[in-house]
Amino acid sequence: MHANFINGEWVEGTTARVNLNPSDLSDRVGEYSQADAAQTALAIESARAAAHAWARSTAQQRADLLDRVGAEILARKEELGRLLAREEGKTLADGIGEVNRAGAIFKFFAGEALRIPGEKLPPARPGIDAEITREPVGVVGIISPWNFPIAIPAWKIAPALAYGNTVVFKPADLVPGSAWELAGIISRAGFAPGVFNLVMGRGSVVGQAMLDHRHIDAVSFTGSVATGRKVAEAAVKRMAKVQMEMGGKNPLVVLDDADLQTAVDCAIQGAFFQTGQRCTASSRLIVQKGIYPRFLEAMKARMQALTVDHALKPGVDIGPVVDDAQLSQNERYIAIGRDEGATLAIGGERLLRETDGYYFSPALFTDCHNGMRICREEIFGPVAAMIAVDGYEEALALANDTDFGLSAGICTSSLKHASHFKRNAEAGMVMVNCATAGVDYHVPFGGRKASSYGAREQGRYAAEFYTTVKTSYTAA
Hints:
The structure is a single chain. This protein is an alpha/beta fold. It folds into 2 domains: 4-246 and 451-475, Aldehyde Dehydrogenase, Chain A, domain 1, CATH 3.40.605; 250-432, Aldehyde Dehydrogenase, Chain A, domain 2, CATH 3.40.309. The protein is built from 15 helices and 24 strands. It has helices at 37-55, 59-75, 77-88, 92-112, 151-162, 176-189, 203-212, 225-237, 260-272, 292-305, 324-339, 373-376, 392-400, 415-424, 463-466; strands at 4-6, 9-11, 15-21, 24-34, 119-121, 128-136, 139-143, 166-170, 196-198, 218-222, 241-245, 250-254, 282-288, 343-346, 350-351, 359-360, 363-366, 383-389, 404-405, 407-411, 429-432, 448-449, 452-453, 467-475. The strands form 7 sheets. It has a 7-stranded mixed β-sheet with strand order 14-17-18-13-12-20-21, with helices on both faces. A 6-stranded mixed β-sheet has the order 9-8-7-10-11-23, with helices on both faces. A hairpin with a 7-residue loop joins strand 15 (350-351) and strand 16 (359-360). Helix 2 packs antiparallel against helix 4, helix 2 packs across helix 6 and helix 4 packs parallel to helix 5. It is globular, with a radius of gyration of 23 Å. The active site is at 245. It comes from Parapusillimonas granuli.
């Protein structure tokens, strides 16, 4: 049994959940404890008790501990990557890549712990100095999703600890294995009891207990828009600080002057890799009419060559979707698209493989318009819709015609159009001739509209959420 980690000790939960491999349902990854509301409250109180001393630890102490965590993650990246692939369904290469990113994030924030910014300004009044400093927020509740089971926890936990906060971490109930291993690494690094706590379990139990507790000072959440609204309501009701990353319906614009191979590479990687289970996935392909026929034929040829199979098999491009609920959702949207009048050009079917798993062929719709549900709603699967446009201005208007605003991409050889798109795309991240789904760990991550709420994640911009600003005056 894999237990919760509370106040420096491993604690059995009140119930347990079996973690299954979506590539092979006969493969039990492990059995993981489920905390209840009382255990969650205990973790929060433990974090509160540890908060004062940890906030006053030295920057070097925090840097050393975070660096130790990053070093163990990187040393074990093949092992942890294999576990991640087993429980989430990413290919082994993607799993190892994600683990590598998690280790790099901890290493980055080890350095940031030594670079917490402040200011000392010249006096506006004679004899009175003004100083601006950043201090930790306090106890941070972290709620992470299932699609990046170690990287997203890393980019929330590492800055929280670097800036002197204590942490109560609830991973996605569907994929607790990577989170449990990360907690084990943190438990061995040398943090004082209560500084970091892991409570696994259902969002309706553990997550709600975190949101309702008066000693959670800030909540960082990544998940669906519907759940995000509930998180925001609960946090604001208590006047707790809140940061949320939610959905996306990201456009990739392909202009007539685009390099065809580059455009197809961007679309395939962005729309279908990691089974399309990324909030940054290119789910709307907005293609100018002059290149549309060639782009469509090239897309179909590439999609036919993709290998969908067990995530740990060599040569596999795409693994299974994460569970039966996601598989059923993909199928519902295939039916919705057809009912709306779109043409299913390729894919969109359950697949049978040697092992019993949740396999689904990447799907591409044509004859789409931006009012269709398949072009408005986040599917969170390997399903893309192609929309034909006459020119750049129409493409930009359609790209911005969405409730979301996380990532937007354009493929073009025109510096004029690329520059204009970067300035005018209503998204938090803009990509030119690269996939919408590729992001780095040392720069800000986040979007606009229904995609994000609150301060940005990652990079030094993480300080905006995980610290609070104090202005001090001193009379000479």
